[in-house]
């Protein structure tokens, strides 16, 4: 099995390009944000716990997302691997992922980072708010908190994966969605 991580700041286009990458390599796309939003919509206990944190632009506890990911690895069959989107988001989650995979005799194969300049992040999220109607996209303070959280807690993973020799980056600004998607696919091709 292949284990790829789609990495990048909020609004970089991870969700926009994930489908094409997953389809090309027969991977299951696992977006922790999307899975958490499904839990909220279904009104589960987990969803109730996650709701206020997500709406404030804060991270949900590491154990919650680690549990979601592990149970997906346990149950999903019929694919050649996984494309993790939005996970790991902290060094602790990165270490937990290594442990979860080691138990299965597996490892992270590569990190595919989608990078856009900081000043574009807000613009992209504001644009998405109009289309997708996500509560955490609609409020300036919440967006600011997510950007701060990314810099403080998530960005250190870049060094973590560079050290492991697994970090690959596509700069996805400027350009159209199609041009950037082609760039991401070319990057994934180059690391096969
Ligand atoms: P974006 O596309 O803006 O990066 P996501 O859909 O990936 O947003 O995530 C939305 C929210 O879900 C995050 O702001 C956070 O509250 C929660 N979330 C998603 N993944 C994780 C994770 N790995 N750890 C903690 N919280 C997470």
Order of strands, main sheet, comes to 2-3-1-4-5
Average pLDDT, rounded to a whole number, is 96
Radius of gyration: 16 Å
Beta-strand percentage range = 5-15%
Q: How far from one another are the termini?
A: 13 Å
List the helices and strands and how they pair.
Elements: E1 2-7, H1 14-24, E2 27-31, H2 32-42, H3 45-55, H4 62-75, E3 81-85, H5 91-103, E4 110-115, H6 118-132, H7 140-154, H8 156-163, E5 167-171, H9 177-190
Bound molecules: adenosine-5'-diphosphate.
Keywords:
192 residues, alpha/beta, 9 helices, globular, binds adenosine-5'-diphosphate
Describe the structure.
This protein is an alpha/beta fold. It is built from nine helices and five strands. The chain has helices at residues 14-24, 32-42, 45-55, 62-75, 91-103, 118-132, 140-154, 156-163, 177-190; strands at 2-7, 27-31, 81-85, 110-115, 167-171. Helix 1 packs across helix 9 (177-190), helix 2 (32-42) crosses helix 3 and helix 4 packs parallel to helix 5 (91-103). The chain is globular. The protein starts with a strand and ends with a helix. The mean pLDDT is 96. It binds adenosine-5'-diphosphate. Adenosine-5'-diphosphate binds next to helix 2 and helix 3.
